[in-house]
Amino acid sequence: MTLSTKPLGGMRQRYPEEFRVENYVTGKLREGSLKAGFEEYDGPVMEPLSLFAAKSGGELVERQSYTFLDRSEREVILRPEMTPSLARMIAHRGELQLPVRWFSMPLCFRYERPQRGRVREFLQFNCDILGSSDLSADLEIMMVLGGIMESFKAPSSIYRIGWSSRRFMTSALERCGVPSESVQTVFAAVDRRDKMKPGPWRESLMEACGGSEKIASMVEKLVGVESTGDPWLRELMEGCESHEEIVRFQDLLARSGVEGTSFSPAVVRGLDYYTGIVFELMDTGGENRRALCGGGRYDNLVSLFGSKKISGVGFGMGVLTLTLFLETYGLIPKTLESAHPADLYVAVVSGDVLAEAAALARFFRGRGFRTMIDVSGRKIGRQFGEASRLGIPRIVTVGSEEVALGRFPMKLLADGTVTTGTPEELASFLAAD
Q1: Cβ-based burial of 93 (10 A; exposed 0-12, middle 13-18, buried ≥19)
Q2: Of these four, 27, 251, 259, 395, which has the most CB atoms within 10 Å of its CB?
Q3: Which pLDDT does position 337 carry in this prediction?
Q4: What is the C-alpha to C-alpha distance for residues 405 and 418, in angstroms, rounded to an integer?
Q5: What sign has the CA pseudo-torsion 403, 404, 410, 411?
Q6: Nearest partner of 117 among 337, 336, 332, 283, judged by Cα
Q7: DSSP-derived 3-state class of residue 331
Q8: By CB neighbour count within 10 A (0-12 exposed, 13-18 middle, 19+ buried), where does 314 fall?
């Protein structure tokens, strides 16, 4: 049997040139989080199925997840997202001083049809604040997201952070005539609006509204509202505390200067644990059709473990999805394409001086220079050719004469300039270059 060279469908693999791009993206995400005072954490890749079945929603667990019985006959799941694991970890560490500001970059798994920006094994960036129910925490999370987009030099004209509130939408749907027991069903229909054509979506909304044309029309008008101050919306929500909350939040966003945000009642998020402000980051150019990022407030996850109620707010962002967005708009630095794996190449004239060449490589590495040493035993000309092919800018040659003198020639491949000196002199020259 001949083994296939392809990975399993949707599974992750990265060649070095792809990894350079991914490291650039994850580096910016990590930098943006640390800059805002967040700390990094991680959790298990495999969790009890019950953890996700309780709060993530039936569709995610039953249709989109890798679930199985382990050898102890326990029902387990490869984590499809991070938030339930985060809530479990917070509940376990009862002595934590709240609020906590944590971020992570976990591998997650979802069993769904692979397509552009959607794979089965993916790296996801998560950023959360737990222990504060104040709108200031929601604002901070939105500021972090906005800051990340600014760090990639993405103009606000090519993306939109649409936001709404589950609490507000629950009240609004009930005022539109949706029975309280049908609110979650209507949420699911509203969440599909941007994923379906208008005709089929209207039919699914009608079905969720129990076949009522009047209620469906009211809901359709509601999700099309574009301002918290819309006169029809104000009349509909008169005296409603959750409407007053979104008006306050809109004012906070405007006054704090967070760019690219817009009120959008159609944003409700598909996961059942969201309770308050929710938001999605979308590509306004339409090249990347699914949300680049989604998140919101969840008030009840930690109490699931018998702990006291701890409110949280955060978001998750697929690294691949973000990368495709950045590539679409030319926001990945071109220098990554020609990046070289080392600053210096140590060429070995013969096996007699291999130990001395290795010691020299160790010396330069100890001084902080990325240093590659020949491991092929090839002739010196071919070693120079290899360094050139890899784009390594400088070559230090080690032969018996150089070892005897304690001085080594270092050649700059770009123009052929040669600098000769002791290891310390060459290191000083490199540091000053």
Answers
A1: exposed
A2: 395
A3: 80
A4: 17
A5: negative
A6: 283
A7: coil
A8: buried
Cis ω on the peptide bond leading into residue 44 (within 30° of 0)?
Answer: no
The DSSP output letter for 221 is H
What DSSP letter does each residue of 1-60 carry, written as one string?
-PPPSSPSTT-----HHHHHHHHHHHHHHHHHHHHTT-EE----SEEEHHHHHHHT-HHH
- Stretch 255-267: mean pLDDT, rounded? 91
> Which residues, listed in sequence order, are joined to residue 128 by a DSSP beta bridge?
102, 314
The CB density around residue 207, as the number of other CB atoms within 10 Å, is 13
Q: In the prediction, which pLDDT does 192 show?
A: 84
Q: Is the dihedral of CA 209, 215, 217, 222 positive or negative?
A: negative
Tokens of 324: 């495709």
What is the tens place of the pLDDT at every residue in 219-246?
999 999 999 999 999 999 999 999 999 9
Give the strands of the sheet with 408-412, arranged side by side: 371-373, 344-348, 394-398, 408-412, 418-421
Q: Which of 119, 115, 233 is nearest to 176 (CA)?
A: 233
User: At a CB cut-off of 8 Å and minimum separation 6, what does 150 contact?
Assistant: 259
pLDDT tens per residue, range 270-325: 777 789 999 999 998 767 667 889 999 988 777 777 667 888 999 999 999 999 99
Q: Contact 114/9 with Cβ under 8 angstroms?
A: yes
**CB-based burial label for 267 (10 Å; 0-12, 13-18, 19+):** buried
Q: What is the rounded CA–CA span in Å between residue 38 and residue 107?
A: 19
Instruction: State the pLDDT at residue 92.
Output: 86
Q: pLDDT higher for 273 or 378? A: 378
DSSP three-state, residue 70: coil
Measured between alpha carbons, how far is 316 from 53 in angstroms, rounded to an integer? 19
Q: Are the C-beta atoms of residues 246 and 263 closer than 8 Å to each other?
A: yes
Over residues 169-188, mean pLDDT: 91
Instruction: Sort strands 261-263 and 159-165 into parallel, antiparallel or unpaired.
Output: parallel
DSSP-assigned beta bridge partners for residue 68? 76
DSSP secondary structure letters along 336-370:
GTT--S-SEEEEES-GGGHHHHHHHHHHHHHTT--
C-alpha span between 150 and 227 (Å, rounded): 24
User: CA–CA separation, 321 vs 325, rounded Å?
Assistant: 6
Query: Is the pLDDT score of 55 beyond 70?
Result: no
